[in-house]
């Protein structure tokens, strides 16, 4: 995994508090998989001391050659506030790709995608990867949820691929009012997908995992968490699981994507 000085290619504010940033990267990112992440650190700054993790949102290609990567992020603290102020041609320290991504099984035909808020970041990359694998995305359901309309992101990335976009907001400001798991449960009452992929807050992942288990559907979840090293050394991002003798795995090294059936939420 290369650690490199990356140049900001572009930087766009897309909604209040949400930004997309394009970064130059090593050609090895051609092998990156949806669900993997990178860590960033502002060059020349000791605050914050630790690197910050971000899901890979897209791989940027020019004539099938990797020219960069894109990150979708929300301003939530000091580092992301500083990041939001950075401009094209500035540089930042980039390390990745890290972790294990979603499994794209041969013969997969009927996936379901579920994303809550900024959890949509790796799900767009996943949709692109599914299409590149030859899966017909027309009609494939995507469930997007958020507290309010400002938290609903990337709907066009899915609809332009012919996917069926289902939107839920807790305050009813966009789509159906309620929780994202409600229309998901309605869909699963009459459909049997091959797999459910999900990323978002842990409460959402827990609920999606329970629904998948009740319907005996395989489910993979990408767990969002604060990380210290990002390399599996510090145990700062441990998650309790059912499949290891000591009961714990590293989100950064063994994940961030896990089979939902092994996670103890």
- How far is the first residue's CA from the last residue's CA? 30 Å
Dominant shape: globular
Low-confidence stretches: none
Radius of gyration: 18 Å
By CATH, the superfamily of the largest domain comes out as Nucleotide-binding domain of ferredoxin-NADP reductase (FNR) module
- CATH architectural designation of the largest domain: 3-Layer(aba) Sandwich
Largest sheet: 7 strands, antiparallel
Mean pLDDT: 92
Report the strand count: 16
What is the count of distinct domains? 2
What fraction strand? 25-35%
The chain-level structural class is alpha/beta
Question: How many helical stretches?
Answer: 6
| Helix-strand pattern | EEEEEEHEEHEHEEHEHEEEHE
Oligomer: single chain
CATH top level label of the largest domain: Alpha Beta
Strand order of the biggest β-sheet: 4-3-7-1-2-6-5
Q: Report the helical percentage.
A: 10-25%
CATH topology of the largest domain: Rossmann fold
Structure notes:
The chain has 265 residues and is of the alpha/beta class. The protein is globular, with a radius of gyration of 18 Å. The protein has a seven-stranded antiparallel β-sheet with strand order 4-3-7-1-2-6-5. It has helices at 78-84, 120-132, 155-159, 181-188, 202-214, 251-254; strands at 3-15, 18-23, 37-41, 52-55, 58-62, 65-74, 91-98, 111-116, 141-146, 164-169, 176-177, 195-200, 218-223, 238-240, 248-250, 257-259. Helices cover 19% and strands 35% of the residues.
């Amino acid at each position: 995994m290369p650690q490199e000085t990356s140049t900001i290619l572009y930087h766009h504010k897309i909604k209040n508090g949400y930004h997309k940033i394009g970064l130059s990267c090593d050609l090895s990112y051609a092998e990156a998989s949806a669900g993997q992440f990178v860590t960033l650190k502002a060059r020349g700054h000791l605050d914050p001391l630790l690197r910050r993790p971000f899901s890979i949102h897209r791989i940027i290609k020019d004539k099938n050659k990797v020219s960069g990567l894109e990150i979708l992020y929300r301003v939530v603290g000091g580092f992301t506030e500083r990041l939001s102020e950075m401009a094209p041609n500035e540089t930042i320290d980039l390390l990745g790709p890290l972790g294990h991504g979603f499994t794209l099984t041969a013969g997969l035909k009927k996936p379901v995608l579920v994303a809550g808020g900024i959890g949509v970041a790796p799900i767009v990359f996943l949709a692109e990867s599914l299409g590149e694998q030859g899966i017909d995305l027309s009609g494939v359901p995507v469930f997007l949820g958020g507290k309010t309309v400002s938290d609903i992101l990337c709907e066009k990335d899915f609809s332009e691929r012919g996917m069926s976009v289902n939107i839920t907001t807790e305050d009813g400001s966009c789509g159906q009012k309620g929780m994202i798991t409600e229309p998901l449960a309605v869909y699963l009452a009459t459909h049997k997908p091959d797999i459910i992929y999900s990323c978002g807050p842990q409460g959402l992942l827990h609920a999606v995992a329970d629904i998948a288990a009740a319907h005996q559907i395989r489910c993979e979840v990408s767990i969002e968490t604060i990380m210290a090293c990002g390399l599996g050394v510090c145990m700062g991002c441990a998650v309790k699981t059912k499949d290891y003798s000591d009961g714990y795995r590293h989100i950064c090294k063994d994940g961030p994507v896990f089979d939902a059936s092994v996670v103890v939420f």
